[in-house]
Amino acid sequence: MFTRIAASLFALTLWAPAALAQTPLRSLPAETFKSLSAKEVDALTDKPGPGAKTAFPVDHENYYVEYASRSNTGNVPEVHTHWTHYIQVLSGEATLTYGGTVSNAKETGPGQVRGDAIVGGTSLAVHPGDFLQIPAGMPHLFMVASPNVKFHYVVFNTRQ
What we know:
Order of helices and strands: HHEEEEEEEEEEEEE
Low-confidence stretches: 6-12, 19-26
Shape: globular
């Protein structure tokens, strides 16, 4: 009996430090409820000038949500080394070029690469309702054909 108790106590002393050292699944507080009307969402990206207009209503260390609006000017190829995009097209039409390599690539921030063009990529017409998954490290570029139409989409980004 004493041997069994001693063996159990010894086993507990081996397991206890490992159990205490484990970090919780989420070390950040849970997100609170959030609500944005369609008008508020539109206002997030309704800004003048060329290129993408983005807003981040949810921004977490391992994921974030991005609303984006693009016109037909100022769009450049980009690569996100550590982030996978899950995109839902809301309105407008564009051509997505993905894959290949980015010419004249420059790191514009940690894990962010921009360039002049995509060489050897594949092009795909995208429309409202379409879903796209762009893995981390894959070059991509949206080109909006019509000068009078905005291309709106929402992106769910996860760290890889």
